[in-house]
Design brief:
6-stranded antiparallel beta barrel; 600 residues; 9 helices; disordered N terminus; mainly beta; 6-stranded mixed beta sheet
Length: 600
């Protein structure tokens, strides 16, 4: 746990015990809850100003109260790291105040945001804040909190908390996989004017997402720092997110997110005037929401999936949180894909690469029409690993291709149906890692006009991280050095024409001994051609591998790789329209040679 997303020392001991409880949702019985007017009297301006973040240590606000064996010295933020903007705030976002004196603590606070429900009374926050709310007294949510004003003088009033919903598997402050479950929902009652929360404030939209970990979001919170935010003003920071490797969590870099920000919303499609949008995460997660070095410019948030949706459904229905299966252990054993025509007819994308080892025969990555993604280890390709289950977001991948960004193993570029382009520098038997956004969603070029892509080395002496792309108007471009340039360095090697729109399959091979890779194109009429030693300077003269009107017009998927012991990427794997899978080995400029049927 870290200082800004960490805990009051005495509170940490209490919460760890609470986390072991499977009580569905705790609350003081409604009959004993203080009335809104009683809470307004209790929470004076002085008492609210004296409250400390539920995620900071009062004696040492920038030192973690827990000693970690893997702790590191805080780092300076990289050049260009953004800083948050202080602003007037939105009624959709505010702070919780609650009294932990019965636990030996003091008055504390966390950030929360109003999310739309039919009952109009639900606030989203961090799970670790929810655990402390469960046992505290005088629990209120204050929309658009204004420091220096009492509860009675707050612009939107205060809303007492009556019920708290936390996933029973969540463990406070953990670095375990269950840190993915660090979110909670608080149910409120009317304010002193008899109005429901959402009728007063409006609301964000709680949104699960399955489009990966790269998003453009605005992160809001109420940091408490005597040095940079003595008036406890709300802040916001608009950033691009990445994945916290090994967890279902977002990561962002922005300075100044210190104690008090836990539970703050991460908002897509943010409207800065109305304070609305889609909340896809909330500050928290691994180690309470930050790294082991306690860097205040690194912040995490669970990315909402099916578990978050289930908890939201319980809260929205005012329903007790039932038992859950062990986290991460409930997925059924993956179904293997035998080499039969009936099965392989459902393969809709293939690419080969050294994903699991730097040398030897290549692995084969396959995308299936139900959203499953499998990795077949090099050689016989019979050892299969499921990287994405049926129904996953990978059903929305239009195309995928292998690249190498300079590492010992290969990665992947993915084009999605909405025009987003993603780069995964590494792929292994455990999944896709380090996602980087090359183009944001709704990029018209990649959504509407792009046709085929293949990765390779098209720059002499460079990495295999160039991208060859064809477009519907016939022009062909090479994007060089994706690792450094992203998709900004474009060289058009063929102008608009009427021939290239007929290209239906595109793959990269290495069969001519050229310093750059070769491209293989299968055309709509079955002709298959080789472009040896392709570069970003020009399209080389073609060599025909199969003539027009050949059976290759039924070659639905074509990918080249090194699948045999000679280890040259001169083998071509074909999935035919009837589901057959064939391997053509030792291809060269003379054409395609030995064909081996892999399916029965």
């Amino acid at each position: 746990m870290r200082s800004r997303h960490g805990w009051l020392p005495v509170l940490a001991l209490t919460l760890s015990a609470v986390a072991l409880s499977t009580t569905p949702a705790s609350a003081t019985p409604a009959s004993t809850q203080p009335t809104p007017r009683a809470e307004e009297q209790y929470w004076t301006a002085a008492r609210m100003a004296d409250a400390t973040p539920a995620d900071a240590t009062p004696s040492a606000p920038h030192t973690s109260p827990q000693a970690h064996t893997d702790a590191a010295t805080p780092h300076r933020p990289p050049p260009g790291t953004p800083s948050p903007q202080q602003f007037a705030g939105h009624p959709t976002v505010g702070t919780f105040f609650f009294d932990t004196k019965p636990l030996g603590g003091r008055s504390t606070f966390c950030t929360g945001s109003v999310v739309h429900t039919k009952a109009k009374d639900i606030v989203l926050t961090a799970g670790h804040c929810g655990l402390s709310l469960r046992k505290a007294t005088h629990r209120i949510f204050v929309p658009a909190y204004v420091s220096g004003k009492s509860a009675a003088a707050q612009p939107y009033g205060v809303f007492p908390v009556t019920q708290v919903y936390v996933d029973p598997r969540y463990e406070a402050n953990t670095k375990k996989p269950t840190s993915d479950l660090d979110l909670a929902f608080a149910q409120t009652t009317r304010n002193s004017k008899g109005r429901w929360l959402e009728d007063v404030t409006g609301a964000l939209t709680f949104t699960t997402t399955a489009t990966g970990y790269t998003h453009r979001v605005t992160v809001l919170g109420y940091p408490s720092s005597e040095r940079v935010n003595p008036r406890h003003k709300p802040v916001r920071c608009t950033v691009n997110t990445t994945r916290l490797r090994g967890f279902a969590q977002l990561s962002m870099a922005c300075t100044g997110f210190s104690g008090g920000v836990s539970g703050g919303p991460w908002i897509k499609d943010y409207d800065p005037v109305r304070g609305t949008g889609k909340v896809i995460g909330s500050t928290g997660g691994y180690n309470g929401g930050g790294n082991d070095a306690n860097d205040d410019w690194v912040t995490y948030a669970p990315l909402y999936g099916k578990d978050a949706q289930a908890l939201f459904n319980d809260a929205a229905a005012h329903r007790a949180v039932g038992a859950r299966p062990p986290y991460g252990l409930s997925a059924p054993a993956p179904k293997r894909h035998p080499f039969t025509r009936a099965v392989w007819k459902h393969a809709v994308g293939m690419t080969a690469g050294h994903f699991t080892a730097a040398s030897g025969p290549m692995d084969l990555l396959v995308r299936w029409d139900d959203g499953t993604v499998t990795l077949h280890r090099g050689g016989a390709l019979t050892t299969e690993y499921q990287l994405a289950p049926p129904g996953s977001i990978w059903a929305k991948a239009v195309s995928l291709t292998t690249v190498n960004t300079g590492g010992t193993t290969d990665g992947l570029v993915v084009r999605w149906t909405d025009g987003e382009m993603s780069l995964y520098p590494t792929v292994d038997t455990k999944g896709f890692h380090g996602e980087k956004q090359l183009a944001p969603p709704r990029t018209a070029l990649w959504r509407d006009t792009a046709q085929l892509i293949t990765g390779g080395r098209f720059t002499p002496g460079g990495n295999r991280d160039d991208l060859l792309a064809t477009f519907k108007d016939g022009h062909v471009s090479v994007y060089t050095d994706l690792t450094v340039n992203g998709l900004t360095k474009q060289a058009q090697i063929t102008a608009k024409n009427t021939t290239w729109p007929h290209a239906t399959q595109l793959t990269t091979a290495s069969l001519t001994g050229s310093p750059t890779d070769d491209a293989i194109v299968r055309w709509s009429d079955g002709e298959t051609t080789l472009y040896p030693g392709l570069t970003a300077q020009a399209l080389p003269p073609e060599t025909t591998l199969r003539p027009p009107n050949s059976p290759w017009k039924n070659a639905t998927l074509v990918t080249a790789g090194a699948f045999t012991t000679n280890l040259a990427a001169d083998d071509i794997l074909v999935r035919w329209s009837d589901g057959r899978v064939s391997l053509f080995t030792d291809t060269d400029t003379a054409g395609l040679h030995t064909e081996t049927q892999l399916t029965d």
